[in-house]
Give the backbone structure.
Amino acid sequence: MKEIARITGVGVPTAQSRISQGLKKMSRLLSREEFTDELFKSYTTGMWELEQTFKYDLRQHTMVKLMIFGLTDLLLVILLSLITKSALSISLLKIILYLLVPYNIICILLFSVLTIWRKQLHSYTLWLLSGTVTIAALLIANIFKIYDLKTVYWIISYLVTAFLLEFIVYSQVRAIRLEVI
Amino acid sequence: MELKLDNITKNYGTAATLSEVSFTLNPGVYGLLGANGAGKTTLFRIICGLMKPTQGAVKYNNRDISTQAESFRTILGFLPQDFSYYPDFTALKFMLYISSLKGLNHKTAKKRCLKLLKQVGLDDVKGKRIRKYSGGMKQRLGIAQAMINDPEILILDEPTAGLDPKERVKFRKLISSFASKKIVILSTHIVADVEYIADEILILKEGRLVDRGSVPALLKEIQHQVWECLISEGEVTEMEEKFLVSNRRHVENDILLRIVSDKKPKEDARQVDPALEDLYLFYFQEGDNIE
């Protein structure tokens, strides 16, 4: 952090605040309102029951939507990492980790919400949940100063969240395959 | 083509919503009659694969539908009782969206969607957002979406709810023209709708299939049990307490009662031809004071 402050010619608190603002903007971009609405609209409009009866059922097309949004987000993460790398003297590994760990956590939350609460989901619940998660993330980031933690902790967090995410995706894909067979 | 329900039972906790329901359907139009809570919607949800039965199986061409889920959904059309939609979609966009989820290619889908929208009378408003539609228009859209993939099995839960008499006539014509070589099952509280178009009626009472047959065959069961008699205003309450009254109307200073009873309700009562509504009341009568 001190190094960033020195390079950018500002004080440490200002550098922290700028990084925090940048991350906030990025999180808005990564969890775009349209993305979330599109993902959950089957449940918030009550269409989920009818969509279960189509050739490509609800589970299949929700998975496809998640994959498309996930890949778009991943591309954005990589693009932002490269842009940040050219602007700041932080290692690319750190930038990628700073972006991928929250990305994994958001994906895990989305998959879990879609699986567990799908039938009771309402757009108000959805926005309440999004707000709570964002506030919790900001509080955690500020209280525990997560960006001052050693890279090894970020790597561990990444591995744990990536494993969890892969497990959830694998379970869903397996369920679809079994249904098709 | 054969759809077979084999000993279907569905329990919610200790309460049985459906009990050992078994029947076989071949191409034709079937009307499912039952009072509220008889298990019609549960039965439809089980046939559509939305719900697993506690016991028994649904078989399509002798294969359990759970072992051919995707291919079964390909030949299925369904209109749920509470039809939901995307309010910001136009009717055409909604139909095209559903077509793609039903696996139709874009060219075929567009042709089919336009044709169906015309058939249900939504051609002029196909570019209008669904949120601005009236209840009847939404229901017609629901019927159209169920038929997009030209399904071999079409299940319609209360399809005539919210339709005015003219729309109901149109609906009956649409189903009749669609139904050849297909299995169409529909439930409705408007008995006249199934009376006109159903080849066979299935009667579901308290989760059990109590009867099935063509309309004339079912009406034979109450052939000599429907009466009409003229009574004075003062006798109405007593008659209604004693007998199952299916209709009453004023005739000059008296009241003409239509009664379903195995006994002649009054000396001057005359026997009349039964209607499906009489049969419905015969099966779903309430109260123990009726003879």
About this structure: Residues 33-180 of chain A form one domain. The CA atoms of residues 2 and 13 of chain A lie 9 Å apart. The radius of gyration of chain A is 18 Å.
